[in-house]
């Protein structure tokens, strides 16, 4: 699960056409590990099912609410609607039905396209069916991590891991990990954060001491 | 030292009551706005029932009085102590809070003097601590000499704040400039060299260039532009006539010329009033603006009634924003913001209004100083990244961006006009043909707007930094060193996938910066390079 070390350099990483001295002399861009070649770890196999169950529960609630609303419409208004807009109830019910079916089917399409990679120095998360995105969270910028699991998640043995870099931003979480995987990841990331902070601290201290001595 | 024992627990002056009450009032106003308005709205309804009215007024009065009561109790429970190496604050009524701020962690001391404070020689001090710590030290209305002592202690214990604090940096030049900065930074609060001082004439220019004024100014500009050719006069005059019908009726005998004069006078007076307002605001906020730089700290001081002193350490600055509106462009001047890490709650929620750190703002500066400030702020990093909106070094994004924007705008238009059409069919609203006409007319405008947005969009990068320009009428450049990035995202829409493009989005501690519609390979390579810079950086980002 945890891919130790950064992936090998690939010839697929393209050159940037840049004016000026973009390239750091020590690390040519070719040698930078690219994201294209990493092995994306899929989410937990039960995650799609869990999302579907959630969507189904929500669908039941929506349908119940819609039914209750229809009951609540007074007979007089109902008659008026039947007279002037006879197609309206059918249209609304169809729309609701299509929405519910889509939301139940959608996880089957979306979940296989999500994935994550834990590298030595960062966490990558890709998602999206139409609008695809790859997010990268360097560990030495993560402030803290959090493990979340809703009752439904727990039923399926799942958890979601949130990472909090400074500056916030939404959607910094990986949903649908196995509970043990999530816990292992959390511990791993916390260790990386701590070791990074210690290194920075000691660097800073020695640097400050050196300056004071001078 | 005026107090007998400087290490003792102290209370802030009774005038701090105003501060505490104001805080409570703000929190209350935000929490109860929804409840308060209906309460006030009920008043006329129950006017005739004296008992209900009495109860209502009592409730309202209690709500208004509450901040002062709570403020008094809070003030009574507020104590602070300036120890040798740390500031201790005890506060809280029911939930006691003990705040312990080592001076090493204090990144800036911001001083604010309201008119009441100034009358009695008091100041309100805000200590800026590093981003990860939520609790911030605020000492309302304390004696000026106590604040001075605090400032001195902090500066003495945190002497080297510039590039030297970083110690071993990413770059080989760290040691050299570190010692230079160490020599430069002297303990004490002596101000460094003055970089900029703004006088009354500048206030007028700031007022002219103010965002509020620009709407009126643009309106006036468009009107005068249109008034010059004689044949386009009529529709405007008609519009004005319709607008000021009652006023114009007195002048009907004077003929068209007088009407033009009247219109011009109206416009001029509107512009004059707007200018007066914005210039007054500029005087209130920026009067006597001075910007100083000493040993890695930037210190700005300004204000007519309430004087504000903002101190920001260069390493804490995450991003420079240089903006230039139409008027500023005409004046060949810029406006600059240096954004520190925002006090965002660790849960990723929104910043509360009380906790927004003071942003270093330079309301008016020329290009040369802006470049100089960039060099001072970013030091060896990002030295070649352009910060001026007019820079030639900024590259355009893909022209497909125009299409995407136009599509987005026309979708919004379709939603708006579609609703209007539905209303028109239902017979509620204007005629269908009118709406269709305006819909058709707005489509080219949307395309034009998309094109203009694309023209303003640009980006540039070098080995240490990235700059992104955006804007519509004016434009602004956001520049930051790569190692300050918190997270990076490459995103592709269906259209972008077809064209081999992508949008790069980076999250900084002070906000998000987007570079839209660049070549996907460039976006990915930039992302990988940014990750490399961040992950190999061993310096603190704040």
Give the SSE order of chain A as H and E letters: HHHEEEEHEEH
CATH architecture of the largest domain in chain A: Roll
> CATH superfamily of the largest domain in chain A, called what?
Pleckstrin-homology domain (PH domain)/Phosphotyrosine-binding domain (PTB)
Compute the average pLDDT of chain B. Answer: 76
Unreliable spans of chain B: 160-189, 229-233, 344-355
Alpha-carbon distance between the two ends of chain B: 33 Å
The quaternary structure here is heterodimer
Query: How large is the count of helical segments of chain B?
Result: 16
Q: How many alpha or pi helices of chain A?
A: 5
Q: Most extensive chain contact? A: A-B, 57 and 62 residues
Structural class of chain A: alpha+beta
What topology emerges from the helices and strands here?
The complex is a heterodimer of chains A (214) and B (542).
Chain A: H1 47-72, H2 75-84, H3 88-110, E1 115-118, E2 122-127, E3 132-138, E4 142-148, H4 151-155, E5 158-165, E6 173-178, H5 179-213
Antiparallel strand pairs in A: 1-2, 2-3, 4-5, 5-6
Helix pairs in contact in A: 1-3
Chain B: E1 9-10, H1 16-42, H2 50-76, E2 79-82, E3 86-91, E4 97-102, E5 106-113, H3 115-119, E6 122-129, E7 137-143, H4 144-157, H5 174-184, E8 194-197, H6 200-209, H7 211-227, H8 233-243, H9 245-249, H10 255-286, E9 290-294, E10 297-302, E11 307-313, E12 317-324, H11 326-331, E13 334-340, E14 360-365, H12 367-378, H13 400-425, H14 432-456, E15 458-461, E16 465-471, E17 475-481, E18 487-492, H15 494-499, E19 501-508, E20 511-519, H16 520-536
Antiparallel strand pairs in B: 1-2, 2-3, 3-4, 5-6, 5-11, 6-7, 8-9, 9-10, 10-11, 12-13, 12-17, 13-14, 15-16, 16-17, 18-19, 19-20
Helix pairs in contact in B: 1-2, 6-10, 7-10, 13-14
């Amino acid at each position: 699960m945890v891919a130790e070390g950064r992936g090998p350099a690939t010839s697929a990483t393209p050159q940037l056409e840049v004016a000026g001295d973009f390239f750091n002399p020590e690390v040519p861009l070719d040698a930078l590990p690219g994201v294209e070649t990493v092995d994306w770890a899929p989410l937990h196999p039960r995650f799609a099912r869990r999302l579907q169950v959630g969507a189904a529960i929500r669908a039941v609630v929506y349908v119940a609410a819609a039914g209750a609303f229809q009951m609540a419409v007074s007979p007089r208004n109902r008659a008026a609607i039947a007279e002037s807009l006879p197609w309206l109830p059918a249209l609304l019910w169809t729309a609701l039905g299509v929405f519910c079916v889509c939301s139940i089917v959608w996880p089957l399409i979306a979940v296989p396209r999500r994935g994550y990679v834990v590298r030595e120095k960062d966490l990558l998360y890709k998602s999206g069916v139409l609008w695809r995105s790859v997010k990268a969270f360097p560990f030495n910028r993560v402030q803290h991590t959090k493990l979340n699991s809703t009752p439904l998640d727990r039923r399926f043995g799942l958890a979601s891991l949130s990472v909090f870099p400074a500056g916030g931003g939404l959607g910094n979480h990986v949903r649908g990990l196995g509970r043990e995987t999530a816990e292992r990841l959390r511990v791993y990331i916390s260790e990386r954060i701590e070791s990074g902070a210690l290194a920075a601290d000691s660097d800073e201290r020695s640097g400050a001491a050196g300056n004071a001595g001078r | 030292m005026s107090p007998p024992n400087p290490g003792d627990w102290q209370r802030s002056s009774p005038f701090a009551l105003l501060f505490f009450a104001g805080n409570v009032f703000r929190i209350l106003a935000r929490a109860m706005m929804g409840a308060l308005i209906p309460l006030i709205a009920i008043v006329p309804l129950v006017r005739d029932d004296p008992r209900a009215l009495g109860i209502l007024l009592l409730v309202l009065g209690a709500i208004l009085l509450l901040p002062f009561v709570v403020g008094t109790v809070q003030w009574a429970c507020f104590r602070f102590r300036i120890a040798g190496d740390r500031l201790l604050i005890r506060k809280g009524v029911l939930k006691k809070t003990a705040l312990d701020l080592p001076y090493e962690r204090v990144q800036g001391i911001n001083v604010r003097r309201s008119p009441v404070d100034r009358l009695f020689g008091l100041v309100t001090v805000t200590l800026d601590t590093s981003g990860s710590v939520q609790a911030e030290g605020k000492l309302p209305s304390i004696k000026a000499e106590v604040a001075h002592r605090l400032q001195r202690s902090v500066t003495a214990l945190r002497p080297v704040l510039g590039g030297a604090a970083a110690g071993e940096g990413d770059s080989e030049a760290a040691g050299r400039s570190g010692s230079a900065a160490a020599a430069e930074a002297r303990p004490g609060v002596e101000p460094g060299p003055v970089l900029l001082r703004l006088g009354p004439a500048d206030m007028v220019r700031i007022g002219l260039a103010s965002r509020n004024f620009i709407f009126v100014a643009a309106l006036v500009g468009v009107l005068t532009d249109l008034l010059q050719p004689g044949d386009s006069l009529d529709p405007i005059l008609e519009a004005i006539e319709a607008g000021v019908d009652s006023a114009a009726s007195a002048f009907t005998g004077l003929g068209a010329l007088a009407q033009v004069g009247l219109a011009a006078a109206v416009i001029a007076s509107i512009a004059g009033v707007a200018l007066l307002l914005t210039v007054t605001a500029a005087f209130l906020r920026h009067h006597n603006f001075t910007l100083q730089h000493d040993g890695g700290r930037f210190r700005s001081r300004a204000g007519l009634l309430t004087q504000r002193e903002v101190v920001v350490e260069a390493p804490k600055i995450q991003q420079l924003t240089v903006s230039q509106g139409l008027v500023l462009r005409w004046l060949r001047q810029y406006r600059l913001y240096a954004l520190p890490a925002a006090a965002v709650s660790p849960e990723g929620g929104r910043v509360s209004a009380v906790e927004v750190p003071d942003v270093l703002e330079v309301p008016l500066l020329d290009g040369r100083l802006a470049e100089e400030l960039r060099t001072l702020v970013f030091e060896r990093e990002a030295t070649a990244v352009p910060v001026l909106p007019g820079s030639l070094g900024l590259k355009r994004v893909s022209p497909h961006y125009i299409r995407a924007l136009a599509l987005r705008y026309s979708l919004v238009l379709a939603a708006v006009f579609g609703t209007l059409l539905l209303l028109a069919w239902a017979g509620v609203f204007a005629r269908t043909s009118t709406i269709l006409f305006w819909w058709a007319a707005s489509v080219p405008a949307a395309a034009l707007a998309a094109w203009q947005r694309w023209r303003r969009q640009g980006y540039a990068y070098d080995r240490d930094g990235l700059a992104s320009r955006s804007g519509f009428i004016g434009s602004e450049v956001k520049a930051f060193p790569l190692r300050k990035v918190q997270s990076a995202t490459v995103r592709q829409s269906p259209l972008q996938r077809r064209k081999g493009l992508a949008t790069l989005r980076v999250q900084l501690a002070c906000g998000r910066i987007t570079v839209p519609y660049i070549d996907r390979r460039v976006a990915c390579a930039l992302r990988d390079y940014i990750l490399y810079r961040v992950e190999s950086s061993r310096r603190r980002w704040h």
